Amino acid sequence: MSEQHALYIDGNWVNTPEAIANQNPSDTDDVIGHYAQASTDQVKEAIDAANSAVAQWGQSPLETRYQVLMAIGDELIERSAELGELLAREEGKTRAEGVGEVYRSGQFFHYYAAEVHRQIDDRAESVRPGIEIETRREPVGVVVVISPWNFPMATAVWKIAPALAFGNSVILKPANLVPASAWALTEIIARQAALPSGAFNLVMGSGSQVGNTLINSDQIHAVSFTGSLPVGRQVASATAANLVKCQLEMGSKNALIVAADANLDVAVNAAFVGAYSGTGQKCTASSRLIVDASVYDEFVARLGEKLSATRVGHALEDGVDMGPIASEEQLEANLAWIQRGIAEGARLTQGGERLSLDKPGYYMSPALFVDTDNAMAINREELFAPIASVIKANDYEHALEILNDTEFGLTAGIITQSLALAMDFKKRAVSGCVMVNLPTAGTDYHVPFGGRKNSSFGPREQGQYAREFYTTVKTTYIQA
Q1: Terminal CA-to-CA distance of the chain, rounded, Å?
Q2: 3-state DSSP call for residue 373?
């Protein structure tokens, strides 16, 4: 067994009797490392440490916080090639996608370093003479970050960076499938001497033990969670019992409309990037492709050609378009969805097979279903897979009706050359993020991100909107 990668609690690296092996999904013979699994007592120690650090970090000078966040961002960007390779090795996305994710993570820290200096309070005149009023934002306290496996660094960072920027202490619980990226990030954060002990903690382990201990604690103040809808409901229920603030990013069933007047080159590229980049393992993936009947056949043919030319392989190999599925469990679920789609009457025209390549890994060919309808389970539930379904629409109104017929509402897109359709779509798509002539996957870090219906709960993430979750408001009355 290789050296154990320890927990980080109260400024110290802490080993445990139990550790798990982190396997490379591109080559299951490649063990990246062994990662400590926190006990319940160790999770409670992290909670105590975070509470002890709140006052010191929350009252630290703005310039100190700015410098800490800038330094973290600088190192992530400088080491993006190295850490991007590590990320690709443990999660399975291509090297280019891994490097891009780490680089973007550095940009998140830079952005929120700048936000540190934009914390400007307000004042108001009182309705009573001789009294002045000030309103200010203060840290909410101890923030628990529960991050998913599909973006093991970026999603964690877009929660951690604002939490630290606004003076909170943080406990990070990464997905147990991908601990290496979280550990590497923690190593960078731990080098920041100006960050008090306990202001940042890493507790790795299962959701059933580590996650449940965190979300059921009455000694935390906020939980930011990204994951599935069923687990999100559990988080909401647990935090509500203790009146703990929670922010949830959950499931999705995003759709891309291809209108009758669409530029099909743009449409096919947007569909491919939206549905299959990151091996389809994105909450913003467009797994429903709603295509106007007049261009349906040509669109299907062109997308099929692009999929046929897609090279699936080891995430670190040059020229690979799509890496492996992240885990055996996820691959088996994907293959089960292929069989269910066929049983429902969908026609599989492309892919959907497990692939055997040079290295033992979780490889699957990108799949395309056609002649589907929106009532099928493959068009109702989030698959988190390189699987897309094409639905034929009679016209724009019919397409929009199909798009909105879902319990989710994270992202939605349309490909059209009509300004009138684009303007109408922006208003009537029931979704938190709307894209016009772009893939549904791909968002910026300086603007709000989140969905509607069962996709999200609580304040928006990212941009200046993040302060709504990571701060609390104090109103002060002053008698002159």
Answers
A1: 68
A2: coil
pTM: 0.96
Partnered with residue 206 across adjacent β-strands are none
Tokens at residue 161, please? Answer: 């960076």
Task: Report DSSP state, residue 385.
Answer: S
pLDDT at 205: 97
* Active-site residue identified among 90, 91, 249, 382: 249
Question: Catalytic pick from 75, 115, 246, 283?
Answer: 283
> Measuring CA to CA, which residue among 22, 216, 188 is closest to residue 105?
188
CA distance 96 to 273: 14
Q: How far is CA 407 from CA 53, 247, 266, 314, 378, in A?
A: 40, 18, 28, 35, 14
Residue 323 and residue 276 in contact, taking contact as beta carbons nearer than 8 Å: no
Tokens found for residue 34: 């062994």
Do residues 223 and 171 make contact, with C-beta atoms less than 8 angstroms apart?
Answer: no
Residue pair 264/426 in contact by the 8 Å Cβ criterion:
no
Write phi, then psi, for 226 (nearest 5 degrees): -125, 125
CA–CA gap between residue 280 and residue 31 (Å, rounded): 24
Q: Which residues of the chain have pLDDT under 50?
A: 1
DSSP state, 461? B
Note the pLDDT of residue 378. Answer: 98
Annotated active-site residue 283? The verdict is: yes
CATH topology of domain 4-250+455-479: Aldehyde Dehydrogenase; Chain A, domain 1 (3.40.605)
Angstrom distance (rounded) from CA 232 to CA 455: 10
Structure tokens at 179: 């601990």
Sheet holding 122-125, edge to edge: 122-125, 131-139, 471-479
Q: Tell me, what's the pLDDT at 434? A: 98
DSSP state of 70: H
Residues comprising the chain, all counted = 480
Our answer to whether residue 246 is catalytic in this structure is: no
| CATH of the domain spanning 255-436 | 3.40.309.10
Domain ranges of the chain: 4-250+455-479, 255-436
Q: State the DSSP code for 69.
A: H
- Rounded CA separation 135/467 (Å): 14
pLDDT number for residue 1: 45
With left for phi above 0 and alpha for psi between -120 and 50, is residue 257 left, alpha or beta?
A: beta
pLDDT in the model for residue 2: 60
Tens digit of each residue's pLDDT (9 = 90 or more) over 354-384? 999 999 999 999 999 999 999 999 999 999 9
158 within 8 A of 186, measured Cβ to Cβ: no
Three-state secondary-structure class, residue 271 = helix
> Do 255-436 and 4-250+455-479 fall under one CATH topology?
no
